[in-house]
Structures are given as C-alpha cells and as structure tokens.
Amino acid sequence: TGSRRWLNLQEYQSKKLMQESGVTVQRFYVADNPPDALQAAKRLNAKEIVLKAQILAGGRGKGVFNSGLKGGVHLTKDPSVVGELASKMLGYSLTTKQTPKEGVEVKMVMVAEALDITRETYFAILMDRACNGPVMVGSPQGGMDIEEVADKSPELIFKEVIDIFEGVRDDQALRMAANLGFKGPLERQAADQIMRLYDLFLKVDATQVEVNPLGETPEGQVVCFDAKISFDDNAEFRQKAVFALDDMSESDPTETEAAKWDLKYIGLDGNIACFVNGAGLAMATCDIIDLHGGKPANFLDLGGGVKEKQVYEAFKLLTADPKVEAILVNIFGGIVNCAIIANGITKACRELELKVPLVVRLEGTNVQEAKRILSESGLPIVAANDLDDAAKKAVAAITRK
What we know:
Structural class: alpha+beta
Number of strands: 19
Radius of gyration: 26 Å
Distance between the termini: 39 Å
C-alpha cells in the first residue's frame, strides 16, 4: 500500500477532471488573489455568480471567516462585488463544523456561473465487492442525504451492475437516466453524461465517483453540480498527475511527515506512544493500554517492509510530541526482522537522547538476536514478555514519574 491513506482533492480539481472527460459542469475559474477573482467574475458574463472558498472540509456555506465575513459560499448578480468578497476570504481562516477550532486558511476561491436547478437527482459509480466490480447507483431524490433515502424509501434507489470488460451499455445508461426521472431529450443527454462519468471513473482509477446533485436546469441542460471522487491508492504509480494534485496543506503535519516514511500515524490525546506493526495489533495495543488505566498518545503503524531508517524517523516523530511520557514498542515479527527494529531503536535512543521511559516487546523472526542487541546496548530499555506485560510496564513507568 502507498504511504497515503486518502487523496484529497479540492472541489475545483474534481470539476476540472470531470471537464476533461466531457462531463457538463458549471463554467468556472479559480483565483488566488482578489483582482483575479474580480476579472474572473467579469469574464464569466453570467446572470448570477457563485463564489466559493476552496477548502476540503464540509459545511462551508455556514462557516465563518476570521475577517468577519460570514459564509464560505456567496451568490451575487453583481460581478463588481466579487473582488471585495474574495479579499475577505483569501488569506483568512474559515471555520466550519468540520474544521479544527482555529479554522483553515483559504488560499484559493472558485468563481462559477450559478445555475438554477429545477430538479436534483443522485448518481454514483462505485466498486462493489459483492458484484466483483463497478456498480451504478442512482435515485431521483437527489441533493439530500442518500442514506436517508435508502432508509425511508428504498424503492427510489436504482442499481445497475457494470461488466468491467464491456463497460456501461447504452441500454443501461438510458434505463438509469429514465429511473432518475429524466424525460424526453433529457433522457439521452443524461445517459451520455452517465457514460462519460464512467469513462472518468476508469481513466483515473477511481473507487467511487459520486455526483449529488446531478441536476436539470430550466434551460434543459443536465449538469453535474457537485462531485466527490475517491481514488485507489494502489494506482498511484500510474496516476502520477492526479496524485500530484493532492492537497496536504489541511492534513495533520505529523501525519504528512509520517507518510513520507511509509508510516501510518494517527494522533490521540493520551500520553503513551504506541509503536506497532500492523493496524490490528495497533488497535489491540491501544485497547490494552486503556485496560490498564493508561491512555494512548497515538497510533503509529510501521507496516511490513521495515528499514532501520524508518524506525529512527518513527522515534523522531514520537519524541517530538510533548504529550508523550512513555513509549511502548510492540512488534510481532513475521515479515519484520526484530533485529532491524532493535538496531533502529538503539540508534534512535542514542542520537535523539531519549528522555522518556521505553518499554519494548518483540516477538517472532530473529527475536533472540534482537533481545541481545537491546540488553547489551546499556540503554534504559524495559523489556516485556508479552503485550499485557508491556502495557502494565508502560502505565507503571508513567505513574512512577
């Protein structure tokens, strides 16, 4: 697996990918400064303009800027106010229900043509294990929470299984368009959009393309108003251009640093750092620390193909966290050679002048050699026999302090 857990694209980036596949989206421009935003608004020459702050978190419309401006989405019929509105967005932090308390700095705005929507439908293509391939899911009830529709009126959810070798057949696309409630010439238009969305799905190695709403305008146009695209991390090697768009600026800086070394890091709010290989073992370690009255400070998963350098970098990340009062290493060596871990640990302890208690439990491949390296290192490392013993010793190390 790649070092990323998920690829984060801004709204304008998803819209651009859709445009490139011939999918109909609103006309739009992006700007990173107010004069450009104003120019874009004039160039659009639209009846109504929508200005949207570009951040990854949801709930933008109800958000608040630290410039005093309310709302990360503004509608206006007067292009001349767009520059001033943008000047209260760009460079300021926007706080929504989904952002951290201090908000997220807005570095880009999207200036788009606002279109009226006479009808909203829901459409998605996703990889479905049960069908061993892609499935189209649609509902004439769009623009709202699809889970709610599925719960209250399941008869309004339509599915079509796609043959991965054959692709979306014309009759399938037309049937889906009809089920979504598109009538007359709009049915053909919607079917074409569906086929283009499938082309995009394949082209970018998506695991899901969700359009909510896929809407109909009074002028008789079928438009994708909002889309979420999820990508397959395993396709990164052949989707270099898409993955290069990844916006890491809103990610936790420690998580981003960890990803560089193929480490998976999740910050928690306790004081015992967990350094483990494998997500299942990491969760078990967190639970057992909890059981013995401790609180995990994080979840750091080393994965399988371990190098000494990774162990060193992992320790660097853990010791940089001021909350950490003890470190618990729990490695079960199957693919992992315990001696590599032991060498990495001793090197890290010496070079980083470790100040907190360190409890180590190693098991598996080459474990005797690893234990010898640790015991002969002369470092104050507490050895543990099993996971339970390790958790008790880590909690005790803190209470003794």
